[in-house]
TrEMBL record:
InterPro entries found in the cross-reference section: FAD-bd_PCMH, FAD-bd_PCMH-like_sf, FAD-bd_PCMH_sub2, FAD-linked_Oxase-like_C, Oxid_FAD_bind_N
The encoding gene: glcE
Originating species: Vreelandella nanhaiensis
Protein name as catalogued: Glycolate oxidase subunit GlcE
GO molecular function: catalytic activity; FAD binding
Record bears the keyword Flavoprotein: yes
Presence of keyword 4Fe-4S: no
Length: 366
């Protein structure tokens, strides 16, 4: 993206947004926070007056040398990625892009990360600071533009994944990283148990792996880093070349696996590393193992209680991505225990006393 294009896309409507929030606070009017509206499937539906951040866009500042970019929440994810790529840099957490309208604010609000997450870190690990519109309609800054600036930094991280239930993300500062100089993707024919065993073995070694997945008898691996390191690992592992677009399709749910699942719900199982296959009555063709096996996409009509019980027994949890499908759950996210619910409720009360921000988005109770 040229400097001219960046300036043309720049628009600050924070004052208008603050006025809308202030009015909603005074009148106790629920707000449904909207960016590109491409992630509305994730979580519970929200009834409220739309608060659109789509026009609040533009790259506020970008220092390629310091590896820091500050951007308005309504900026399209594709535009930000293009601007970073011109300087051979990237968002390390590899956020999913569920359509051309996807915004960076939505990516942070949902806290989702792509295939690189186990090796690079999660979305919140790269959020340096934010400007947030509070319940009173005030625009406050938390954190900064350097990792050592800890003033308010934890609250910025807290906003990541909160789904807009604690305030309105207006601007976000990120730590970015260089795009690896060399990349090679490969596929290896291999059974599930052998693949999980191999990934556990490889994970104990300093290898340039930045993505690993298994599905339908094939292990998929992405190698990134220095040329000599990638070359040596590629020769050691062997396998057939794999198109890099495979990881994009997995990240954005455009892979064939995510199509044609009529009568089934799509679940994401989050499990500890090196967890064995769960004892569930699901064909292996309906399970896609991502993040080296820690994240598992499952298509099934099994009931939510059965899935969640199996995940919890293994130390994980399950999230439903298709709330209206057979086998879906009334609560897309794993219900909180009494202690966690108390903390969530107290936090919500402190930051959103009248429940105006995306009420019921995470849980029906608040």
């Amino acid at each position: 993206m040229t400097d001219l294009a960046i300036r043309a896309a720049d628009r600050d409507i924070s004052e208008r947004l603050c006025d809308q929030v202030r009015t909603a606070y005074e009148t106790r009017t629920p707000l449904r926070i909207v960016g590109g509206n491409t992630r509305m499937f994730y979580g519970r539906p929200v009834e409220g007056q739309p608060l659109s951040l789509a026009e609040h866009s533009g790259i506020i500042s970008y220092d390629p040398v310091e590896l820091v970019v500050t951007v308005r929440a309504g900026t399209r994810l594709s535009a930000l990625q293009k601007a970073l790529a011109e300087h051979h840099q990237m968002l390390p957490f590899e956020p999913p892009c569920f359509g051309e309208e996807s915004t960076i604010g939505g990516a942070v609000a949902t806290g989702l990360s792509g295939p690189r997450r186990p090796w690079a870190g999660a979305a919140r690990d790269f959020v340096l600071g934010t400007r947030v519109i509070t319940q009173e309609g005030k625009l406050l800054r938390f954190g900064g533009e350097v990792m050592k600036n800890v003033a308010g930094y934890d609250l910025s991280r807290l906003m990541t994944g909160a789904q807009g239930t604690l305030g309105v993300l207006a601007d976000i500062s990120f730590k970015v990283l260089p795009i690896p100089t060399t990349s090679h993707c490969l596929r290896l024919p291999m059974g599930l148990n052998d693949a999980l065993g191999k990934l556990a073995q490889l994970g104990r070694q300093p290898l340039p792996i930045t993505a690993a997945a298994w599905h339908s008898g094939e292990l998929f691996i992405r190698l990134e880093g220095g040329e000599s390191s990638v070359k040596a690992t590629r020769e050691r592992l062997g396998g057939e070349p794999l198109e890099a677009s495979f990881w994009t399709s997995l990240r954005d749910h455009t892979h064939d696996f995510f199509k044609g699942n009529e009568g089934q719900a799509l679940w994401r199982l989050s499990l500890p590393p090196n967890t064995a296959p769960l004892a569930l009555d699901i064909p292996q063709t309906d399970i896609f193992y991502d993040w080296g096996g820690s994240q598992r996409w499952v298509k099934t009509a099994l009931d939510a209680q059965t899935l969640r019980a199996a995940c919890q027994a293994a130390g994980g949890h399950a999230t439903c991505y298709t709330p209206n499908a057979q086998g879906s759950a009334d609560e897309p996210f794993t219900p909180l225990n009494a202690v966690l619910e108390k903390y969530h409720r107290n936090l919500k009360t402190q930051l959103d006393a009248h429940g105006i921000f995306n009420p019921g988005r995470l849980y029906a109770a608040f």
